[in-house]
Write a structure and sequence with these properties.
Layout: E1 15-17, E2 20-22, E3 26-28, H1 37-45, E4 51-52, E5 56-57, H2 58-62, E6 83-88, H3 92-105, E7 109-114, H4 134-147, E8 154-159, H5 166-181, E9 186-190, H6 205-213, E10 219-222, H7 228-238, E11 242-245, H8 255-263, H9 274-291, H10 297-308, H11 315-323, H12 328-338, H13 351-356
Parallel strand pairs: 3-11, 4-6, 5-6, 6-7, 7-8, 8-9, 9-10, 10-11
Antiparallel strand pairs: 1-2
Helix pairs in contact: 1-9, 3-4, 4-5, 7-8, 9-10, 10-11
Length: about 375
Amino acid sequence: MSRHGDNSPGEMAPLRIGDLKLELPVIQAALSGYSDWPMRAIAREMGAPYSIAEVAIDTFVNSLRNRQRTQHHLLVREDDHPVGAQLTGTDPIQFAEAARCLSDAGFDVIDINFGCPAKRAAGRCRGGYHLGDPEKAIRILGAVREAVPAEIPVTVKMRRGVDDTDVSRARFFRILQAAQSLGLAAATVHCRTVEQKYVGPARWEFLSEVRDRFPELTLLGSGDLFTAQDCVRMIRETGVNGVTAARGAIGNPWIYGHCRQLLQGKSNAAPPRISEQRQVINRHFELARQVLPAAQYLRQVRKFCLFYAAWHPADNAVRDDFLRVRTSDDWEDVLNRWYSMDGAGQFPQNPGHLNRRSTTLTDVAGTSGRETVAE
């Protein structure tokens, strides 16, 4: 039984974001360097009811028009809906212009990023650091809400403050109150501070406090969600309406089906067999090759395969072989070596440790104006 009586075993309360009604309260989060169109398409095929594109800087979005080689950043296909776009940046005017651009491109929701813990670039305040300047943060919220059509929900992603001071805490609640007053449709709260980055445990009890103070707000939780069990436990323990699968969804599109089973009161599914893993890996490869530049798609999918490898019973050896992939022939060699024979898979060993490494991979560099992995 959840803290607020919803989502007890056998029940799944729908997640509502504006007029969107999502039948599973577990969504694909925005992840810099990862939640590109191929990852989102895989997530949708595997049961994610809604996904958010990787966070993009406002000025980058505003520069994308009529540039064929970067148009995949604005790609929205008919079967992608509903899909959100997440924005970060520094200036309310630039935020508003970028929000209009993303709305015109076909994104169903505009999500404002006040959560990314990346350091300020060239002295400019972005992401989670806006939580230290409530006046500007509130101007951004208002500018974006005014810029896009009323039927397009605007949401916000926040950390629980810049730090653990009382001042930072008061600023968080001031901004969240303004978001609700301005008509934002939902808020996602990552329960670490900006200064924590990804160090130390996320304080889930903070979500319970936010739930109590804002009982009418659609609230999503984030932080330390590496397995389906984590996602379901957060929903039931804190009273949030839903959760965002972030680093725990990298190389793990099975998380949505596993969450569905647990929320329906069923036991957790078995890990995917090796044949199922190969099928998803090949599908990811084909989708990436469809939309990414030729010089980029193999490197991009290889990043995911470092995480897909964790499901294989020879995980370390498989991961080491994927690290050596440089050509399509290398790719085929690894699949033929490790995925040609079917067998039982395994659940990733110590998935929290595995996913913390995602923040330090060196080949995440900026194809969408991004600065770091953000969840």
